[in-house]
Amino acid sequence: MEEFEKDKDFNNELNSLSDVLSKAGRDFKSSAPDGYFDQFPTLMSERVAQGSQKLSWSSWFKMIFNQRIAIPALASLLLIVVIFNSDYSNKQSEDIFQAEVIQQADPAVLLAFVDEYDIRNEIIRNEMEIDISVLDSDNTLEYFENSDINIENLIYDNL
Amino acid sequence: MSHPEDKELLEMFRQEQSSHYAFNLIVRKYQQRLYHHIKRMVTDHEDANDVLQNTFIKVWKGLHSFREDSQLYTWLYRIASNESITFINKRKKRKATSIEEVHEISELSNSGSVSPHPDQMEMKIQKAIDALPEQQKMVFSLRYFDEMKYEDMSEVLNVSVGALKASYHHAVKKVEKIILGH
Fold this sequence. Notes:
The complex is a heterodimer of chains A (159) and B (182). Chain A is 64% helix and 0% strand. Chain A starts with 9 loop residues before the first helix and ends with a helix. Chain A has 10 helices and no strands. Chain B is mainly alpha-helical and 182 residues long. Chain B is globular, with a radius of gyration of 18 Å.
């Protein structure tokens, strides 16, 4: 084969080597398992043909779930969702103290932010006929809704 | 088995309907030479098989843009050599360089005669080659086993002919020294 011409000077060079390298070593050929070179071209053709094919939906599906990146990517996505939700909840509880939100909020929710001590003072100050000892979260709201006391003011007092 | 000339193969490859066939012929023509070259570098058959497959996958991908500035076979050897070096570097990271192997070589050398049994000789030469630095190993393999011209080696390894001759000279001396157990 013309393109793989061996060097003509090689034999001269070989003669200058020691006996060990000029004789025994020349016969050394690394061996491959039997039949390896018969099967290898077919294997390569198959690999190349697979690489040339356009991926079907099922191939994409398999590829996505076979990739090492799939699990870390899914975990990262879940982490982002958790962080976003947590941030959103914190933001909501912070927003409850904003004036506009207070005006629109459910009184029952607002009441949770009012100190019981303030409620008692308000009852006394307004000379309301309420037995303070029976106050609980359910009936307090009912009392306040039927009175002229503005819960919002109590909220602001507590901010 | 006679193989078509490289020029013929490349022309065939450039025609879409025969590119797969031409690639298969290129694999058949060069698989053995590249396999032996790679195996002398990586030693193990399974590793050589992986590197050879990666080499031909790169050949398939790159052959479309091969401009024949160099000969096909030197280009193939260059890819195989680069793939072998990449593989060896990755393997080095996985495990520390084996100093034990060098000791094994010395022990083997000291116990043997000047003209040992051929099988023992093969083992000695392979171990001696393994003990060479990567560049010298490559140069020794291409020159001693493949009888490649220095000009072609220069294309494969992108090193000057003078540097290659010096490198081969050092490699031969080291291999002889290890085999003779000096």
